[in-house]
Q: What sequence folds into this?
């Protein structure tokens, strides 16, 4: 095993060779190479910090930075660049390349820093960018939902509780429910970003740096809003990872519920929606099948992100201060969370953009099953009956209607009057679908005028929050 030569960073203290299997176990370069660009970016800022602290001369820092620039260019030019050398992690890799290019001067870059503050800085830079992209990408399902709401503005569907038909609602109201969830998700991510955007660099291994580096200037050059206030905390804090994964879990939870609704409403039994061929699959055996694999995978992948949240919490809970190698496990959880979110959001937006609503079928479903029973109770309340009594009375009317196999509107006036003398001809108006919807006209309700307002507001909100 040759990794005692130039890849290990701790050669001096060691006599023995590293066990090859352990070296492989210990290495993170297989996945943390995704931090390559931000690692170089942070190194350049650190280089400036060392120069203004007088640790490096102007010309030394310029040489280092120009070599770092070449390194990042080579990395971007060819993936092979990373395969040229067996290496422990991305930080080791960049430093080894630097030394290879400019010799001993390259060995000066690590002055006053540790991989502990370096990795925390890299991960924060990487995650900040990922969050910025996610908050934009989250707009895609939101836009698709608003488009769906607008093109189907009059469509009515049954609303459910306990998966039993409850009250009719506008399909657009259903769309806006998910719009709200994604809005909160974007707010949450924006909030998490504040705590991500704090600079740990300058904390060194755990105690702080001994060089007069202007940390605030370094923070500014890397776009961080603040510098960390405690070096012990800064190198061992992964709250921002937990917070992010938690916010991401809620995004996945919302996507998963959306997926479940879409899957259910696309069954023959419901028949409300039809998925586009572009996002469905067939069966290798049953020729008639059209399966909602896209949404099933989104639902399934939500579990994976919840798993990352749990693994981060479990990984951190017993760690003594400050840095421990356990924390190397943070990266795969974060990377996979970001990848899963990006892919799930993209597929979900495509599903929504191409979703077909069978309006006749949803209207038919919303008009059958006594979804207007509450309206009749409200009618009796308006006529002076206490609500509890009205509820009981309508319950008995529903029972008779069920026995006769008819809807409430199909009963005659005298049938209805046999239950209460308060009932008059105008009761039938209250039972109409239009009235049922129109009465829900307070903020948050499903009345068509309300929903139209909300769609307009949602559109405006989406435009304002454009980053
Ligand atoms: N690869 C390490 C990680 O991801 C970098 C920090 C290593 N620090 C150390 N003291 N061994 O956490």
A:
């Amino acid at each position: 095993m040759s990794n005692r030569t130039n890849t290990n960073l701790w050669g001096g203290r060691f006599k023995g060779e590293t066990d090859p299997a352990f070296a492989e176990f210990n290495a993170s370069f297989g996945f943390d190479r995704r931090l390559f660009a931000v690692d170089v970016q942070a190194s350049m800022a650190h280089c400036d910090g060392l120069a203004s602290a007088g640790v490096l001369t102007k010309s030394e820092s310029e040489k280092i930075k120009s070599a770092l620039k070449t390194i990042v260019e080579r990395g971007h030019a060819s993936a092979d660049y990373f395969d040229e050398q067996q290496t422990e992690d991305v930080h080791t890799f960049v430093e080894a390349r630097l030394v290879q290019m400019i010799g001993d001067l390259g060995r000066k870059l690590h002055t006053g820093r540790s991989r502990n503050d370096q990795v925390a800085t890299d991960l924060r830079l990487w995650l900040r960018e990922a969050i910025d992209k996610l908050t934009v990408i989250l707009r895609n399902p939101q836009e698709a939902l608003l488009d769906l709401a607008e093109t189907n503005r009059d469509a009515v569907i049954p609303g459910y509780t306990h998966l039993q038909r409850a009250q009719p609602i506008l399909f657009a109201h259903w769309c806006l429910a998910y719009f709200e969830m994604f809005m909160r998700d974007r707010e949450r991510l924006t909030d998490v970003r504040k705590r991500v955007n704090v600079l740990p660099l300058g904390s060194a291994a755990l105690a702080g740096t001994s060089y007069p580096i202007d940390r605030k200037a370094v923070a500014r050059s890397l776009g961080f809003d603040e510098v960390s206030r405690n070096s012990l905390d800064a190198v061992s804090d992964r709250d921002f990872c937990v917070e992010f994964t938690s916010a991401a879990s809620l995004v996945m939870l919302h996507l998963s519920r959306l997926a479940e609704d879409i899957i259910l409403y696309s069954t023959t039994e419901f028949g409300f929606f039809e998925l586009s061929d572009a996002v469905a699959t067939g069966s290798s055996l049953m020729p008639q099948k059209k399966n909602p694999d896209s949404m099933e995978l989104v639902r399934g992948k939500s579990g994976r992100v919840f798993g990352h949240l749990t693994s981060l919490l479990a990984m951190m809970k017993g760690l003594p201060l400050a840095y421990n190698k356990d924390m190397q496990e943070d990266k795969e959880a974060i990377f996979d969370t970001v990848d899963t979110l990006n892919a799930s959001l993209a597929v979900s937006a495509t599903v929504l953009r191409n979703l077909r609503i069978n309006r006749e079928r949803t209207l038919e479903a919303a008009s059958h099953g006594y979804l207007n029973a509450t309206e009749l109770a409200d009618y009796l309340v308006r006529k002076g009956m206490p609500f509890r009594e009205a509820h009981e009375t309508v319950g008995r009317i529903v029972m008779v209607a069920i026995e006769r196999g008819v809807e409430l509107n199909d009963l005659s006036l005298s049938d209805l009057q046999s239950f209460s003398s308060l009932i008059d001809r105008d009761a039938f108006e209250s039972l109409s679908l239009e009235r049922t919807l129109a009465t829900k006209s307070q903020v948050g309700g499903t009345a068509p005028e309300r929903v139209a307002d909300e769609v307009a507001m949602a559109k405006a909100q989406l435009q304002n929050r454009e980053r």
Observations:
- Residues 28, 32, 89, 115-116, 119, 323, 325, 327-328 surround arginine (CB under 6 Å).
- The longest strand covers residues 164-170.
